[in-house]
Amino acid sequence: MQKNNQQKNPALRMMENGDYEGAKQALMQSLAINQEIFGPNSSEAGEDHRNLGAVYYRMLDFDQAKEHFETALSIDLECFGSKDPQVAVDLANLANTLQELGEWEPAESLFRQALAIDQHRYGEGSLETSNHLSALGGLAYRRGDNDQAQSFYESALAIVRKQLGDRHSETAILLSSLGMVNQLLDANDAALSNFQEALQIAQAVFGDQHRYLASLHNHIGGVHQQTQKFTAAIQAYQTALEIDQNALGNQPHPSLARDLNNLGSAYEQDGQYEEALSCYRQAAQMLEHLLTARHPHVKGIKQNIQRVEGLLSKKE
C-alpha cells in the first residue's frame, strides 16, 4: 500500500508559507485517512502527529504541540525501537516544546536522550550530534547557566567547523550564539572575536545587506557599549539600522525599533542627548503602532525619553 500523501505534501507547503490553519486541516484529514487504512499506531499516523505538532508549535500553541509530539514519540518507539534516529527527532521536537513551556529539566533529559541516540548511530563528530549539543546550549542559555551553555556551544562549533568548514552559515550562527554567552560571562574580547568572525562569514555567504548582518552588528555594538567604546558602538548600531531600513523601509517594525533604541542608548551613554532623544522618540512612535500603550517595551522607551529629557533640561 502507498502512503497517503495527497493531504500531507500540500499541508507541509502551507505550513512553510504560514498558512497554519490550512495545514492543520489538511493534516487532520491525512491523519484520519491513515488511521483508517494503516491503524492509529502506524508509522504513517505517527508522521501526521509529528507534522501536526510542528504546525501547533509554529502557532505557539505549545500544549497542543506537546500532545502531538508525545503521540508521535509513543508510536515511533513502538514501530522503530528506542535507538532509531526518528525517535531522536521526536525527542528533540518534544524537548523544544517543553522548553517553551518552561519545563527545563524534562527538556534537558529529552535532549540528552536524543543526543545519545544520534551519537551512537552517527558518531560523536556528526552534524546530528552538533545539532543536539547546540540545542542543549540554547537550553542552558535560557536557564541562565552560561558556563554550561558555553561548553555546549564550543563543542557544537568544533564539530561544525570540521564538517562544514569555517565559511558556512551554521558556523556563523554558532559563533554568534557563543558570542552572546561570552558577553554574559564578561569575556568581552572573546565575544567580540566571535561576533566579528560570524560577521565575516555572513558577509561572504549572504552579502553585505542581508538582515542577519544587522543582528550581528547589533551584537558587536553591544560589546563595544559594554566596554564603553561608545563611538564604535554607535557606528555598529548605525550600520545595523541602515541594513534594516534598506530591507524594511521606514514603516514601523520591531527590528527598526530595536535598532533605534540601541542607538539611542549608545548616544545617551556618550552624552549625546539630543541624538539619543531623537532615536528614542522614533522607536517609541514605531512601538506605539505595533504594541499597546501599556506594553512593557512601550513603557520602557517612554522612560528612556523622560530620562533624557531630564538630562537635557539640567544641561540647559
Provide a descriptive summary of the structure in words.
The protein has 316 residues and is an all-alpha fold. It has a domain at 208-316: Tetratricopeptide repeat domain (Serine Threonine Protein Phosphatase 5, Tetratricopeptide repeat), CATH 1.25.40. The protein contains 15 helices and no strands. Helix 1 runs antiparallel to helix 2 (20-38), helix 11 runs antiparallel to helix 12 and helix 12 (230-248) packs antiparallel against helix 13. It is globular, with a radius of gyration of 23 Å. The model is unreliable at 1-6 (pLDDT under 50).
Write a compact overview of the structure shown:
Helices cover 82% and strands 0% of the residues. The protein has 316 residues and is mainly alpha-helical. α5 (85-100) runs antiparallel to α6 (104-122).
How much helicity do the residues have?
Answer: over 70%
Order of helical and strand elements: HHHHHHHHHHHHHHH
Measure the end-to-end span: 82 Å
The biggest sheet amounts to: none
Provide the CATH superfamily of the domain at 208-316: Tetratricopeptide repeat domain
Strand content: under 5%
**Whole-angstrom Rg:** 23 Å
Q: Note the total helix count.
A: 15
**What is the name of the CATH architecture of the domain at 208-316?**
Alpha Horseshoe
Low-pLDDT runs: 1-6
